Amino acid sequence: MLIFDQLKRDDRTLRIISFGLLAGLAILLCGLWWVQVVSAKRYEANLKNQSFRSVRIPALRGKILDRNNQSLAENRPRFDVNLYLEDLRDQFTAEYTNTVRKQFLRDHPGAKITASVRTNLIARARYRVAAKITAQISTALEQPVILDEARFIGHYARQPYIPFPILQNLNPRQVATFAEQLTGLTGVEMEIQPTRTYPNGTSAAHLLGYIQRRDKPDEDEEIACKYYLPDFVGRTGVEASFDNSLRGKAGIKSLLVNNMGYRQREEMLTEPEPGKNLALTIDLGIQRAAEKALAGAMPNVRGAAVVMDVRNGDILALVSAPAFDPNIFPNGVSTAEWSRWNDENYSYMFNRATYGAYPPGSILKILTGLACLENNVMSVSETINNPGYFYEPKLLGSRKIDDLAPPGEYNFQRAFIKSSNTYFIHFGLKAGLRKLVEVGERFHLGETTGILPREEVAGEYPHSDQLKSWTLGNAANLCIGQEVTVTPLQMVVMTSAIANGGKLFWPRLVKKIQASDAEKENESSLPGSLRADLHLNPRHVEIIQRAMLADVEDAEGTGKAAALKGLRVTGKTGTAQITKGNQVTDHVTWFVSFAPFDKPKYAVVVMVQSGASGGGTCAPVAHKIYEAILKSEQSTPSATTIAQRN
Amino acid sequence: MYETHLNERKSFLDWPLVLAVLGLMAVGAVFIYSASFANESARTLSWFKQLYVKQMIWYTLGIGLVVLVCAFDYRTLARWSLVSYWITILLLLAVMVVGTERLGARRWIMLGPFQLQPSEFAKIAFILMLANFLSRPVEELRSPKIFFTALGMIALPFLLILKEPDLGSALVFFPVGLLMMFVAGVPVPYLTKFVGGVGLLVILLLVDVLFAPPNWQIKLEAYQKHRLLTYFGKDFAPRNATPAERKQAQILQRNKSYNVEQALISVGSGGLTGKGWRQGTQYSLGFLPRAVAHNDFIFSVIAEEEGFVGSVTVLTLYTIILFSGIKIASQARDRLGRILAVGVVALLFSHVFINIGMNIRLMPVTGIPLPLLSYGGSSVLCSLIAIGILQNVHMYRRAY
């Protein structure tokens, strides 16, 4: 063979040269072996690292529907204008050579363009190109847009392979104008992004909550994906508490980039998995009626109304007034707007139905009465005299508690419907503080219901083991619903338990979670669940229920305004005092009720801050809500057809 | 007489050599195509402006030169060596005056659409010149005067090319010249002393550049110093640098070592079998700079796309050429032919070793092309003239 012939031949000089050549070639071979075979993995990793960028692609957010599949939150296309930087490379270069560079030389005669000056000038040229295009778009679409230089340069430095957003959320006219005048403009694309929309505006705003754009990834996601496209994250309401189901699973797109960082090719590594749809227990019709009714209670009403199905704990409506419009959040909200929604007096964002705890006042007499009945300290027929105040020096010393019920003889029902403080303090103290507190505990007052974990308060309610500091004076206050606070939601749960004979439900807001529109069968139902069976004596329940019926139907009842033809409504009014020192500064007015009396189905609780009285302010609201319920029951078939058509 | 004639006709061409050369030309055209077609703007050029087409034109012209070189006995050619040597020296001088400057080096003379790189041609003329000079009777070579004259023949083009500056090309003259002297019969002690002395100087220089405090260092061209520092993986910043200077130096270092890093990633990521022809991403995405992918770093392109298998194939083709050269040297009719053949082998080997070596960081980066594969007219023509000389020596060899 060629090589060995040479080595064998008797020619010392050439043999030495041959060995030299062989050694050199062997070194190259070893070097190549080392680089290409032994270290190949490392270099492949380097290659990948410098030429691939994984970008997180957010998934389509799931819809939120009411119990009849009416849409509460959905996605609509949003038209954005983006700048594709890789397509502008030629323009960048042209701008640099034709304008920026010349201008620099004119301004700095004799100056040398060093590498760093050049870098700056090229960056300047890029910005000028982008700004020119932005101005062109701005003029055509008749919307002022300023290209922020720092933002543009920052974007270019960090992620030139991701299109640079110029304008978001074009209105239909702008979309048309763009299509007419700007299509074909190099590097500029109009793109469709899904965005959140709440078709019913402020309706059910608090329970739906709002979402915000999130520009930075979670800690754990950062590891998987180096680059991030803005996603939406639920901040309050169902959007927040079911965020994981709604958001779906983000996909990963792998971009091949060149040495300048421009995108060359892209490939979807993992398709995004769309979020799941939520079907709520809410009935949009009832929800809207409740909102309208509450709004009509008084001017600038601040309050809440909750409607619950007493048979299973389904929340049919949950209203907090005043309400905000969740539509303003997905596209960013200005500071001015934000402070308007968080106005100190009205707190639009605040969910009064779950997050607000208020003194219950006389509506708690339901529990006081139940405690007295269960402890056999009160007979329904027994009457006591009410002098117009409660005064027992033996018990409360010199303290005198006013009674708004007129002086006279009171049995249980009369005391209940006239809401006599004297009567309930008298018998309540007989039952004793501990027994009174225990009843509330059985109704899980002072505990959250878990409906919206981040926006619910427990209210202040004592624990029966921690009553050492409680005096008889405190106990007297508790008898008439002062001293403690409750949420409207807790009250609707309590009222439901009275209505259904002692079954305390966990309130349910989400009926089912559907995988997606296509696979309806793949859905998980969240059944209503019983929190506690209170084992109430049916006779005691009936006494309370009848008293509540009388409060609405009796001529003397405080809740007469709730009465409705065709539906036997029951109720209990309450007006709690908010005191500062010894001064009464404000009132919280209540009306808790259920209907129909014979076969209870609905519990309605209305709370209005600074109302005139429970009967005057809140009972009419309940009346209107029941009216709507009655109407919707009568027209159920047609509601179903609407749902099917949707 | 009859037998000699028959023998010469029987192997008029040295077939392994010819096939290896054709093989390398094919590889060259195919991968220059690959490297240049990744570039969008290059793709829009008309076909006759495409680099691979131009390279094939150079190949064709080169083959013509091979035929031309073979048309005259190498002894006739050697007689003209003095003329060609001095012409190339003149050209090297001309470069300094009328040469075009690119990236801080003045290496080219524009001849209309062509860029002549005189240093390439100087190598060939030098081989002819030195071979002619050394082919005198062996006894005369023992004279120190002859030895120093030979060194002078190396030194003249060396210094001129060093001035361009093109340290890499300049340095090639030493191994080539020394090997030719060795095979000519210059006493080995002369050579060892010279190599030893130069080696010592180089080591001192390196130690000085790499380790000495700044004010003790010999003034090197900045680019040379940076290349050396890059090669030895040393920080650019002097030890007493301020943080700002250090940062500046780091950026500079990253820029300077960029080509080598990218070449290494190209070669390394090719792995065993490569990514496939035109599937390489390093140059198509521009990480391996497009300006060098088709010439100095063509090997990276081949290695990335064809992997270790491709690299070994290329290496094998060169091995065939080099050992054909050795065989031709051993069969040469006279000492002139023998020295010429070894000179050509030394030249080709130096280029192959330095170029492939720099692709895998065995050698510092220099502008030395890979014979027959790198894009470039001067390089292709000179490589083929060198092959022509080998073939010439083969044709007029001793008949066994």
What is this entry, summarized?
The complex is a heterodimer of chains A (646) and B (400). Chain A has 646 residues and is an alpha+beta fold.
Number of helices of chain A: 23
The main sheet of chain B comes to: 3 strands, antiparallel
Helix/strand-derived category of chain A reads alpha+beta
From the N-terminal CA to the C-terminal CA of chain A, the straight-line distance is: 85 Å
Major β-sheet profile of chain A: 7 strands, mixed
Average of per-residue pLDDT values of chain A: 86
Q: Measured on Cα atoms, how large is the radius of gyration of chain B?
A: 22 Å
Helical residue percent of chain A? 40-55%
The H/E string of chain B reads: HHHHHHEEEHHHHHHHHHHHH
**Would you identify the regions of chain A where 5 or more consecutive residues have pLDDT less than 50?**
638-646
pLDDT < 50 stretches of chain B: 1-9
Number of strands of chain B: 3
Q: Biggest chain pair contact, residues each?
A: A-B, 39 and 42 residues
Cα end-to-end separation of chain B:
12 Å
Mean pLDDT of chain B: 85
Q: Please count the beta strands of chain A (DSSP E, at least 2 residues each).
A: 24
Q: How many H/I helices of chain B?
A: 18
Describe the fold and architecture:
- The complex is a heterodimer of chains A (646) and B (400).
- With 646 residues, chain A is an alpha+beta fold.
- Chain A is 40% helix and 21% strand.
- Chain A has 23 helices and 24 strands.
- In chain A, the strands form 7 sheets. In chain A, strands 2, 3, 4, 5, 11, 19 and 20 form a 7-stranded mixed beta sheet that branches. Chain A has a 5-stranded antiparallel beta sheet with strand order 13-12-24-23-22, sandwiched between helices.
- In chain A, strand 9 and strand 10 form a beta hairpin.
- In chain A, helix 12 packs antiparallel against helix 22 and helix 14 crosses helix 18.
- The C terminus of chain A is likely disordered.
- Chain B is mainly α and 400 residues long.
- Chain B has 18 helices and 3 strands.
- A 3-stranded antiparallel beta sheet of chain B has the order 1-2-3, with helices on one face.
- Chain B is globular.
- Classes of the chains: A alpha+beta (646), B mainly alpha (400).
